[in-house]
Write a structure and sequence with these properties.
There is one protein chain. The protein is mainly α. The protein contains eight helices and two strands, in the order H-H-H-E-E-H-H-H-H-H. The longest helix is centred in the last third of the chain and has 21 residues. The two termini are 14 Å apart.
Length: 181
Amino acid sequence: MTAPATESGSGTPSAGNITRDVPPPEYLQVGLGRLSEFQAEILADNAITHEEYESAYLEYAECAEAAGAPVQKGPWWDPEQRDFHVWVIIAAEEDPGIQGRVDSCWSHSIGPLQDWWIWQQEGRPTDAELVEQDRIFMERLVGCLQQRGIDIPDDPSPQDLETAYGVSRSQYHECLNDAGS
């Protein structure tokens, strides 16, 4: 997914105020087995610096361009959201396989690093807050898709979401971005 995340907290970009000896919560530990070599190198010391996080976004931008999705803007730091952003042009109508290639770039370069970065920040979410955030996100996503005329139930299954994605990838991605903001 290429939608930017929203960060909470205050201060300047940093690795947060946790010690490198603090074990990550369970929701982050699950992703550790799926890290690319690039990501594993960044997390070797159990923390992500601002420079390392930026390098992941630069890696993503380079990979997306190599995959055929030109970078329109970025990566750039957004101090309000306390995250990096990058805009790539995904012309799925011209190249049906491009979305999968760009998603692969995201998984290889940023993927779980974004969740780890969020965890490091002050005000990092608890498991209960994450459940609530997911519920709100899904509610917004489904509402947006329904407003665009895509038939999807209020409490969709993964199959329902996949079907909605197949109906209109561009509208689905617009709704993902809208739901995340």
